[in-house]
Prior knowledge:
heterodimer, A: alpha+beta, 3-stranded antiparallel β-sheet, 2 helices, 3 strands, B: mainly beta, BH3618-like, 8-stranded antiparallel β-sheet
Amino acid sequence: MLVLTRRSGEVIKIGDDIEITVIAVKGDRVKIGINAPKHVEIFRKEVYEQIIVENQEASADVSVVMEWMKGMKKD
Amino acid sequence: MKISTKYHGEMELEKNNIITFPQAIPGFPDEKEFILVPLDEAEEFVVLQSIANSQLAFVITNPFRFFKDYDFTLEDLVVELLEIESEKDILVFSILTVQDPFDQTTANLQAPIVINNKKKLAKQVILNHPDYRTKHPLFSKEKHKVGKE
């Protein structure tokens, strides 16, 4: 991994069209600004990973829903 | 063409009904084609069924029926990817994480499924919105709020 040290207000450029700005540093929190072309999707990594976990959980067997539907029809 | 489905057995497949996820669904990079199969007569709950993998299916629902205040803006990226020309072509669904008992089921409001129903293109959009998480109880007080309308 490339490691760079930056101060508040300084910028990192990635390729021609992505810029990452350190906006503020406070304790262990860093506020970062990102300029990127609109086709580049930007997420917090843990959010993306959480979506994967949730999708996997959601695709598990849900025969319970079928049972519930059958119950509804009887009502 | 016939396909096997997780919850509906073997089904006749209309090619025009195939929905393509050009970027796949996070966690399932190999599955890009799905169909919608209603679970109940009221079509309140729908199955998003993978065409290639009969065992892969999600139960989804219209989130606006359950969460009155649910609201988000589609990024240009999504509008372009899904070739959206008109708002009326858009369908929005939330993936449900079904629980036993069913009333404990949660909806993923952080990553809705957005479909351009005209072009049959879809994407699971991840929202950078602090209020929307992956597990919102489906049958909470919000549902009653919806009922008041």
